[in-house]
Amino acid sequence: MKPIAVIILNWNGEKLLREFLPSVVENTPEDIADVIVADNGSTDGSLSLLETDFPTVKVLRFEENLGFAGGYNRALRETGYTYTLLLNSDVAVEGGWLRPLYDFMEAHSECAACQPKILSYRDKAKFEYAGASGGFIDRNGYPYCRGRLFATVETDLGQYDGPVEVFWATGAALMVRTALYLEAGGLDVDFFAHMEEIDLCWRLQLMGYKLWCVPASKVYHLGGGSLPAENPRKTYLNFRNNLLLLHKNLPASDLRGALMRRRMLDTLAWAKFAATFDFANAGAILRAHRDFRKMRRAYTSHPQVNLLRQPRRPNILVEYYLKGKRAFSDIK
To answer: What is the rounded distance in angstroms from the CA atom of residue 84 to the CA atom of residue 197?
Structure first.
């Protein structure tokens, strides 16, 4: 068996497969990897397209839509390669993209997962929002990236081309040791969408492993195809899942203080939406907190270690909004 499975999850994504899969097939080295499409019960022409145009691509057929987390969890259980690269269906790659990730994982046994540098498919000079050149998290649990702070995305000038240990690696192109992925429990299906990979990476670190970004590998991500930034559904998922992220992965002794700070900060976000008469997004924040209070009851086990204190992390809200810092390199 080859060491790597490059798995693309698909649900009625015939158009995306036509546009992006050719580059993956062409540029994925056949000596070390198989390209696999895990189909979540598509009813469009996806399966016919794969059969006629991509005969070398292996296909896993699921009878129903298991969602992003559920689909990948089942795919990794059924395939069992040493490494799995979870690749979004809207990612294009070029020659030499896979081997740097593989070589890095082979040389660093303490690394549970890594990501390439993620650039924008539409503007290849810029980083892409979802992952950029590695993911980080601040003391209050807000995620940000090397190359992206909140909505500010930097131009790639080679400033972040060195490999770096990160807090989280993007799910858009995530190479992971399959056995550790399964041992950690995989992606949390209750998250539905947004931040599920951060939750997985947090759990892998609690198991004693590390995460890295390896910019010698680069890919191009379309991104933003599911929900626009100002969509209330996206606001709801981001706020709810960020609360779940903290509740699941912080020690019980630290939860009260952490969640109290987040309630205060989220109240400010709610007030900003309400002041601009954006009642849809303001209501999404209220629903996020309501549903979090219900969902947190399912998570009764908490770690002993607070990774937000190791090492001391910045307050990204202060750095960005009060100090006006817009580049990752400006943040200490």
So the answer is: 14
3-state SS of 253-312 is: HHHHHHHHHHHHHHHHHHHHHHHCCCHHHHHHHHHHHHHHHHHHHHCCCCCCCCHHHCCC
DSSP character at residue 249: H
Q: How many residues does the chain have?
A: 332
Give the CA dihedral 18, 22, 24, 25, nearest 10 degrees: 120
Q: How many CB atoms lie within 10 A of CB 332?
A: 6
* CB-based contact 49:79 (threshold 8 Å): no
Integer Cα distance of 88 and 62 in angstroms: 17
Residue pLDDT, tens place only, 111-158: 999 999 999 999 999 999 999 999 999 999 999 999 999 999 999 999
| SS3 category, 3 | coil
CA distance 326 to 328: 7
Q: What pLDDT, in 10s, does the model give residues 182-221? A: 999 999 999 988 899 999 999 999 999 999 999 999 999 9
Cβ proximity of 6 and 76 under 8 Å:
no
Q: Per the structure block, which two tokens stand in for 306?
A: 């607070």
Q: What is the C-alpha to C-alpha distance for residues 136 and 132, in angstroms, rounded to an integer?
A: 11
**Beta-strand pair 83-87/4-10:** parallel
Rounded Cα distance between 311 and 298, Å, is 29
